Amino acid sequence: MISACIQSCRNAKRGAKPWHELLTYETSKRVKIKDPVIGVLRLVLIIACFVYFCVFRIFGEYAFYKTEKVTGIIQTSLQGPPGFSDTWQDVRLKTDYCNEGYHSTKSNLPCVTGPDAWVMAPSEGGDELFIATRLKDTSGDGKQVTRSFVLNPEDYTVGVTFTVQALQFWHDTRDAKFSKSITEVTTRLVDKESVPYTSGVTRLSRFDIFTVSTLLDAAGIKSLDDPHALDPTKTNRYEGLTLLLNVGCSMEMDGTFASCDYQVDHFYGSVAETFIVKSYNSSGESGISTQERRGILIKFKASGEMGRFDLSTFMLAWVSSLALVEICTMLIDWSMTYLLPYRGIYKMVLYDESPNIHELRQGDKKAGRAVKNLRLKKLAISGEVNAAPSGLVSPTGSTAWSQGSSQGRPSPASRASPRGVAPVAVAPQQDYVSPRGLSDYSQQAQYGDVQGQQAQYGDVQGQQAQYGD
């Protein structure tokens, strides 16, 4: 359509009707271009499309599978170090952030700890886990406030177990490969660059065990005593933070997976807090005693896909790859026509222009002669009429040549007309009119640098143009 508009503007300058060009129909034409540069360029693009489809789409993205995102059910647990309740007093004396410590940090508070039930609170064992790092106890009457740190929460151990399932596939097929529990897969902990930890995960029965310090390191947090992002005067231990632990399972060639990776991300600038009720006295003046807990909130989620073969999905990927090949072909044709050297020659070979059929319907004599000349040209190419000297055929397909037999060429009288068609009379050589309607053909024309009035198929002088006078 764009080329038709450009052609319409050119023809309008020559007096042609521009709407004739806008209402043209362009059909495809297969032409063999004998140019190694173009051939190599197209071959490279075709190979690139083939590699993209076979390597990236088929073996990388499994484009023949219809996929479904998995749904995960995650259970968690939290425990303090074994025997920690018996030794915590000694540990507290050697801890930097406790008042009794030998060193000072940005925040120093008394340190406390408790049994596993106290450590676990207020988590319920689901897909969220809260690890307290700082406590704020408030009496029922609000008159007494006590702040303290939890002793060494980095040494706590986190337990995770999960089951993932492609719900729709499982419902339709009842195939066991669409439902995987943690005991059926191998797991590993990776950092932000997907580099696995050598001993980051320990499998204990149906639970994977991590230390809190390992999860913090995987999230890029070296210490809880580092300054907090929102308030550098306070530490992560004092304000709290939020982590996202993703259980990522990557689909393999069989449509399911056999391994999953744990990856931890830190929500920058986040804090985490929760509240629990320590005591409740409805009859006394003490009222409700509460405890605010700041700490590490870990959110767990499962991600991944499972797939099964689907013909329509495969055909869609195949058709999209074919469309990519067609786009490459269009780019090559456009480059040949408008960018590359010898683009005039490429354009001459790639595009033909028919006589004006609209004018032919109206009985225009010029259009009739153009059709006759085109028919003679096709007959000459097919060998049904005598060819021009040295195998050359005039652009009009005519059997008349202006130079005659004096230059070794047959005269019009010596040529046989095809199927009773009368020979076309050719006037003596005058001003030659090019196929594009240009009177001066000694300059660079549309089809290349044509000098001395050399025609499209050889040194043909004084003959009719391709589509008429």
Structure description:
With 469 residues, the chain is of the alpha+beta class. It is 29% helix and 24% strand. The protein contains 12 helices and 16 strands. The chain has helices spanning 2-13, 18-22, 36-60, 84-93, 116-120, 167-173, 212-218, 236-239, 311-338, 343-350, 357-361, 365-382, and strands spanning 65-69, 71-79, 111-112, 128-138, 145-150, 157-165, 179-181, 186-190, 202-204, 207-211, 241-249, 259-266, 273-281, 287-309, 444-445, 448-449. Strands 1, 3, 4, 5, 8, 11, 12, 13 and 14 form a 9-stranded mixed β-sheet that branches.
The main β sheet shows up as: 9 strands, mixed
Shape: elongated
Please tally the helical runs, counting DSSP H or I stretches of 4 or more residues. 12
> Radius of gyration in whole Å, from Cα?
42 Å
**DSSP, total strands:** 16
The portion of residues forming beta strands comes to 15-25%
Order of helices and strands: HHHEEHEHEEEHEEEEHHEEEEHHHHEE
Mean pLDDT: 77
What would you call the structural class? alpha+beta
Helix content: 25-40%
Distance between the amino and carboxyl termini: 28 Å
**Oligomeric form:** single chain
Q: Which blocks of ≥5 consecutive residues have pLDDT under 50? A: 389-469
